[in-house]
Amino acid sequence: MRTSPFSLSAVAHSLPAQTVHVNQWVERCGLSNARARALRDHGVGHFHDAEGESPANLAVHAIAKLLRETATPRSTVDALIHTHTIQTSVLAPPASTAHYIQRHCGLNRALTFSVTQQQCVSPMAAIRVLLALAARHPTIERAIIVCADVIGSGCDRLRAIGDLALHSDGACALLLDRGAEHNVIASLHLYTDARFFRGTDDTLQPIPDDRYYWSAFTTMRAAIRQANIAPDDIAHVLPHHVNLPGWARLMGMLAIPEARLFATNFGTVGHAFGADPFINFETCRNQQAGEWSLLFSSGLAGCFGAVVIRH
Fold first, then answer.
1. What are the angstrom distances between the C-alpha of 178 and each of 88, 123, 185, 266?
2. 182-308 is classed CATH 3.40.47.10
3. What is the pLDDT of residues 163-183, one digit of tens each?
């Protein structure tokens, strides 16, 4: 979709202090050294371990940091959207994680709800929902989207996405403003391959996707076209932290020089679910006014998303 004039004004993230090296993870899961090598070959270095801390609390920390760093008055936030990837990242009913975050952040006047079922693309889906909502309700001028997920204690083996990545625990908060001049959301495109609606196989492992590269490529290409720019106009590609070698192939398919891929956080952050491209947006320091960035994420159940931002 070609978007309304909202900007991604700021991003703040909260990652647990405890980090675990891939070699440690392999050892504590009783796996082979060959598995560690395969993960390292795909760009895996460390992941962040919440050690039982609640994802809701990580979300509160991320929002508090965002509000503090941007000096944003809580009373000016019109909407709060909570997103997550896995079902265990929310409080058990009848409790509401979104309400918990709202209350602990003091965002009392914000319209508050959750978006999920788009896996690691859920934050991008939340942006789309916000843009549609704001188009109907001009009084929505400012919003916060927060994503937060953790792999629960005792579920260490579930951190792995084959040999491609290890999940990190963490949260990320986005501040979106209507009418700002910089970091304008120029386009957003979502795609879901319905063949993978189950998400995993019977052993809770990802199902191999024989069309992954094509789906990822066409999703990003569609976002670039909707922004009315050429691939070579993209100055920064801000990826999810999955399969670093595969990104060389995708950059070639997009005809964007591989040097424009921001890969700094692959080995140090891990795959923080839907937060990856937004953490990269926050930490990529050489963005210049007038340049364009391409953010990408994909998830289980055949979900793909891309956003183009004009700085």
1. 33, 18, 10, 31
2. yes
3. 999 999 999 999 999 988 899
